[in-house]
Amino acid sequence: MLPSPAPAPLTGRQEQIGSIKELIGAAAQSRGGALVLRGEAGIGKSALLEHARQTAPGFRVIRTAGSEFESELPYAALHQLCRPLLSPEGLGELPAQHRDVLQVAFGIAIGQPDFFRVGLATLELLAVAAHESPLLCLVDDAHWLDPASLKVLTFVARRIPDDSVAVLIAARTPGTPDELDTLPGIELGGLDDAQARSLLAANSRITLDDQVRDRLLAEARGNPLALLQLPRTDGFAVPDTSSVPSRIERSFQARLADLPAGARLLLTIASADPTGDPALLWPAAQRLGIDVPAASTTATVSGLAEFATRVRFCHPLARSAVYLAADDTQRRTAHRVLADVTDPATDPDRHAWHRARAGAGPDEEVATELEQAAARALSRGGVIAAADLIERSAALSLDPAKRIERTLAAVQAKLDAGVPDAAADLLATVGNSAAHEPRLDLLRGQIAFARRDGGDGPMFVIRAGQRLATQDPEQSRRCFLDALEMSLAVGRAQGVMGRVLEAAEAASTGRRSPDILDALTVLTTDGHAAAVPLIRKILEDVAGPLWTDRPGLTAVLAAELWDLDTHAALVTWLMKTGRASGSPLVLRLGLAQLASNSALTGDLVRATTAIAEEEAIADAIGAPRLVYHRLHLAAMRGRREEATELFEAAAASEELSANLHWAAAVLNNGLADYPAALVAARLATSQDEIGLAGFALPELVEAAVRCGEAAEAATALEELTARTGASGTAVGLGIAAYARGLVTGVEEHYREAIDRLEGSPALPYRARAHLLYGEWLRREGRRKDCREHLATAYELLSGAGLEAFAQRAAGELRATGERARRRTGHTYDELTPQELHIARLVSTGATSNEVAARLFISPRTVDTHLGNIYRKLGISSRRQLRDRPDLVGPS
């Protein structure tokens, strides 16, 4: 960008300059941060970026800008920003895995980087560069950034609080990307009348009479660029009611019209290639016979652009004005010569991009080239870019069948990219095609599910399975399983399961090995005793399709059998697979299941750290956090206020309602609020949610007994006994035994419960068995016996952090004249969830770099957290962290 006249372009921007100065000053002291400048075109965002560049002494400045015409090339803007740092020396300071990821993302090497790895590698690249000198990253026209670059830059901007890095971003309104809403920002408004008059007077090249001046001021509406550019043109006799940006663009176009043909054509070529690389522009211009030295000099003198080591337009509106001023033939010509001079071997994507815009109509060769470019974009993690390239490929297809196939592929890509509304709009262009009906229904279902459109998603997918029953039985079964998983994810499994199983049974053809759909059919028709052997056989096939393709269903089935060992094995498999692949979906599922398993086994430290990491991933990809796991943890600890807030937040999003009610039942049983526990347990069990209703039944039994609802307790116990008896696991049988003791008051059932749970991993339930037995013994007047079990219950419960249940045990002990031994506070009460996670990782010997990679933050941020951890825990070294047994959690 051309140097802006100073100080005139910054008239009226003292407050914004102060904020930028504060940002830069903080970064100079290793307190990095980001700031987004929002406002309409011409309002002064770019001038403020330039001011920041000129007033950041000692900073290394790197910059990039979005391009309206380049958003389909993944990581293009990020590459432009990082290019100055990608010298052999700069890359050599990065760990090999980060260096490799960046080279793949920027098309230098072949591979498949995921977004997380690109984000972490970029974070490390900036952090390394900032060790030498503070770094100022300037990002202009963020509303035009390619989606992959935008995602990474936003990710990085949120994770530099302890690095000498300042990120200043300018984005136009309306149209500012939602991703930027998570960053601090300033809204730029127009100048007031006095400021506007001052700016106009300081920069007017001619003497304006009062009438013209007043008209200029009225039409500019305080827009600084309008005040600087509009006086250069004539034509103010008729008031212009169009928007200020469009009038500014016309002022640039008026200046363009006065230039010789060669300069105009050179500017058109430059506007068509946002890289600003003279090595491309000069040969392209020469192919059209342009006298490059003369034309570039003329264009520079006009003030529209500067032709030097890079080509920069004076303002983003100038680029778009020049491009739009050219007619279709001129634009196609510009793209044609740029394609001719772009090497398809070293830069195939940009070559295909220019060729696509050089054509006047469908072209199967170009369509194929774009399809190949989409595959390359996908391999580099540019999912949205791939979707756009495939969509353009479809538009250029001559063969109607290929056009439909490519369009459907683009719909799927947009779904994978997380833009279901765009996918729906594109799908609507396909219309009805009998040959593609099953695929259309499957896509409609996926779109509805992604949009959270009630229960429509599973219904569309069921219909797709029905249509495929005869032509592709295996795909048909997969559709039914998809529908079942969708229903589980939104908490409507029981309502949909019947339809899924009915449709699957009707569509079944030929002989095959029994699968999970068969097992669930037996479960719903013949009960647990008949279904459990089949379910267990399927669960034992760890290399089978249930584990590898449907880990979510595997977890649900393990819970249905109270099989915590299989569930733990699944967690290990998920975490190993997720870490190896870098898949955020697999990692989030693994961490969610790790949190559940840890809570059920009483390791609340591990549960807390798993939740913290899951939330870090959710934040990184812009996904909503899973409220339920934190709610379950708060419920087990008996923290009513925290649980109530989380319950309300989760209920508002209708997330897994049966899980919510189960957590509420656990909370209120722990707090001895049995009427509230009874209401919640009834709601949790009424939905008969697979994998969940069984765990809610003992809460219902306890609450019903305490509330004097004997018949209801007996009915719940009968159902619980049938389920646990079929499962045969120690956990299930032990829980059923103490529930039987509650209902019958027979001592041997409590003893059986303790014996069965003694060797199980389910510490909370083992502790509750001792608590319930101790409470029964006290009511029987057996003070000595009850003290033993109540003391055991208290030690187990308080040691695990189940505070409400522990207080119940302490209260019972006091009633016998004994006092429970007071315990010191838990580490997780002193540290934030993220600090606890960092402390636990460091206690295992993990380095700051390794911890940073896990939590998507910079190593310097890890070190800052460690300082806070040391202070809170009264220690001073990593070795002392490794010596703290409370970070390991109960076994």
From TrEMBL:
Parts of the chain that traverse the membrane: none
Superkingdom in the source lineage: Bacteria
SMART domains: HTH_LUXR
SUPFAM superfamilies on file: C-terminal effector domain of the bipartite response regulators, P-loop containing nucleoside triphosphate hydrolases, TPR-like
Any one Gene Ontology cellular component term annotated for this protein: cytoplasm
Keywords, in A-Z order: ATP-binding, DNA-binding, Nucleotide-binding
DNA-binding recorded as keyword: yes
InterPro entries attached to this UniProt entry: AAA_16 (IPR041664), P-loop_NTPase (IPR027417), Sig_transdc_resp-reg_C-effctor (IPR016032), TPR-like_helical_dom_sf (IPR011990), Tscrpt_reg_LuxR_C (IPR000792), WH-like_DNA-bd_sf (IPR036388)
GO process terms (BP): regulation of DNA-templated transcription
PROSITE patterns with a match to the protein in the record: HTH_LUXR_1, HTH_LUXR_2
4Fe-4S listed as a keyword: no
Domain HTH luxR-type: 824-889
Entry-linked CDD domains: LuxR_C_like (cd06170)
Pfam families (UniProt xref): AAA_16, GerE
Entry GO MF terms: adenylate cyclase activity; ATP binding; DNA binding
The name this protein goes by in its record: DNA-binding CsgD family transcriptional regulator
Source organism of this protein record: Kribbella italica
